[in-house]
Specification:
The chain has three domains: 52 residues, Single Sheet (N-terminal domain of TfIIb), CATH 2.20.25; 192 residues, 3-Layer(aba) Sandwich (Dna Topoisomerase Vi A Subunit, Chain: A, domain 2), CATH 3.40.1360; 254 residues, P-loop containing nucleotide triphosphate hydrolases (Rossmann fold, 3-Layer(aba) Sandwich), CATH 3.40.50. It is built from 20 helices and 25 strands.
Length: 554
């Protein structure tokens, strides 16, 4: 005996459909989008996370032969003509007044009808009879062994007939059998038939479930075969457009259906004009010529990692870069400094402007307040430099929120993050490698999304053996602390090398700058030498003749 439905167009607690659920008299319900059977719909919210209470809808025991009765007539409630209904074999059952009460949709195994789906007009619910195993798509028997240029597939039987009407019979049209959640299974069962057409136009419901199902179906078809319709003006499905007599609008949408392409895949020759007329990235020169010869400057949209051992001058180099960007561009600059407060950051930048270590009290005392005022304004132009003013790391999502705000809200084209491993300590405890991978992916995504130029400070792992980084050993990518994700996701990796333990004080103040990776130029190796001036606190590029390096260094 068929289940009696008492309500329809209810939301489903298991999928995104807002109107696919029909409620039965016994309190159970069926979703015709995700095909779930819900034993107690009123308690669905309480059991929505308990998948054990959801079981497939069983087919009624009644014979399908008794269900395929009725007459051919227009489906007036769906604006389907009798001619189209006859073509698809859809019959109706009328009451004693001549009112259509049921639609009966046949399903074929070859040329034989082996199952039916009955739709009740009053409540728009369904019942199924017979076996659907081995059946083709609804309407498939009309085009079997025919193939052709175009096949349109819809999410429901009425939509298939609606498309046939809207396109005036110009396209072969079929429908999946069991709703959006079973679309892939239905198509796989008829894959030979579907693939016999040159183009497959997918016209599923214009909701989340329908859109995703169309994409899933497109993925199992041969490349470039599937096209997905974008229904205009918020129409839910083809039948709704037929009801509004939107013949031209639907035809336009059908012909403009976009060939499905997985995200990130493109036909390269189609990008020729974009390649020819692309806007070249503007390069900002580094403060040191040797580094420019290797890297051809800094560019927005790139992630540059600066690394070196503890106490080898990463902060000094970073300060020089920050000051350089402020003075040599009109761009806003953002600074995320997690190991120092804003006063130290300001001291460092202003000291470079002054060419003097005025962060030291004995140096600062030699300047008047007016001179300091002038130096600050010259070094840190109003409205151009933004800083994360919290000493120490807090919640990782909060830090990323602030970083995004500095980039987007403060319109910073350059941002310095000092340093990566402080972020790692906040994110995770114990699994440093996993933490670094997660952070680098987030930072990389942020760079790609916003086009910001990012300078990221990173540490090196402890060197093995007698010679450590403090003795000036040559740095390689394998020395990066924690994960190769740093090297993989950075556009450029710059390493600092310095022999802190050198007996010659001149040598102890020479920092070697080595390029470990350059995605832009491919040029790696030693770039330049920087000498620290103890009087001014500045780093100046020096020639090889000016260095005092022990031969064992090389």
């Amino acid at each position: 005996m068929n289940t009696k439905f008492i309500k329809h167009k209810l939301p489903c607690p298991k999928c995104d459909s807002s109107d696919a659920v029909s409620l039965n008299a016994d309190g159970s319900a069926k979703c015709f989008s995700c095909n779930a059977f819900i034993p107690d719909y009123d308690k669905a919210d309480d059991m929505s996370t308990n998948t054990n209470t959801i079981v497939p809808m069983k087919q009624p025991e009644t014979s399908f032969l008794n269900s395929y009765t009725g007459v051919y007539a227009p489906l007036t409630d769906r604006n389907i003509s009798e001619q189209t209904a006859r073509k698809f074999g859809v019959k109706v059952v009328k009451d004693h007044t001549g009112q259509v009460k049921q639609h009966i949709y046949p399903f074929h195994n070859g040329s034989e009808i082996v199952a039916t789906k009955t739709r009740y007009v009053d409540n728009k619910n369904f019942s199924c009879n017979g076996t659907f195993e081995g059946t083709g798509l609804f309407g498939e028997q009309l085009y079997r062994n025919k193939g052709g240029k175009y096949l349109t597939i819809t999410e429901g039987e009425c939509d298939a007939m609606a498309v046939y009407e809207l396109m005036q019979g110009k396209s072969s049209v079929v429908s999946i059998k069991r709703g959006a959640s079973s679309a892939v299974k239905d198509i796989r069962e008829s894959i030979e038939f579907v693939e016999s057409f040159d183009n497959v136009v997918l016209c599923f419901d214009n909701d989340k479930a329908g859109i995703e199902s169309a994409r899933q179906v497109a993925r199992i078809l041969k490349p470039s075969k599937a096209k997905i319709i974008n229904l205009p003006n918020g129409y839910k499905d083809a039948n709704e457009m037929l009801a509004k007599k939107k013949f031209q609008e639907f035809s336009t949408a059908w012909w403009e259906a976009k060939t499905y392409t997985p995200s990130g895949i493109m036909e390269l020759s189609s990008k020729k004009d974009e390649w020819l007329h692309r806007e070249e990235k503007e390069s900002i020169a580094y403060p040191w010529e040797g580094l420019n010869k290797k890297l051809y400057g800094m560019r927005k949209g790139e992630l540059v990692t600066l690394t070196g051992g503890t106490g080898l001058g990463k902060s000094s180099v970073t300060r020089e870069l920050e000051h350089h960007l402020i003075k040599n561009t009109q761009d806003n600059v953002g600074i995320i400094a997690l190991e120092e407060n804003w006063l130290r950051t300001a001291d460092g930048i202003v000291s470079i402007e002054a060419n003097d270590r005025i962060y030291l009290s004995e140096k600062r005392s030699k300047y008047t307040q007016e001179e300091l005022h002038t130096l600050f304004d010259k070094a840190i132009e109003k409205g151009r430099v933004f800083i994360h003013a919290h000493l120490g790391a807090t919640d990782i999502d909060e830090i990323f929120s602030k970083l995004r705000y500095i980039i987007v809200g403060c319109e910073c084209d350059w941002v310095v993050v000092d340093h990566l491993h402080m972020l790692v300590n906040v994110l995770t405890e114990g699994d440093e490698r996993r933490g670094i991978d997660m952070l680098m992916n987030r930072l990389r995504s942020l760079v790609e999304e916003t086009g910001v130029g990012m300078i990221l400070v990173s540490h090196l792992r402890r060197a093995q053996g007698d010679r450590g980084h403090e003795k000036g050993i040559q740095v390689s990518l394998s020395h990066l602390k924690g994960s190769q994700g740093i090297a993989q996701l950075s556009d450029c990796v710059i390493a600092l090398e310095r022999n802190q333990q050198a007996e010659n004080p001149e040598e102890a103040n020479i920092t070697k700058v080595r390029v470990l990776k350059s995605r832009y130029t491919g040029d790696t190796g030693m770039a330049c030498s920087l000498k620290y001036d103890v009087d001014t606190g500045r780093l100046h590029e020096v020639t090889e003749e000016e260095t005092f390096t022990n031969e064992s260094y090389f």
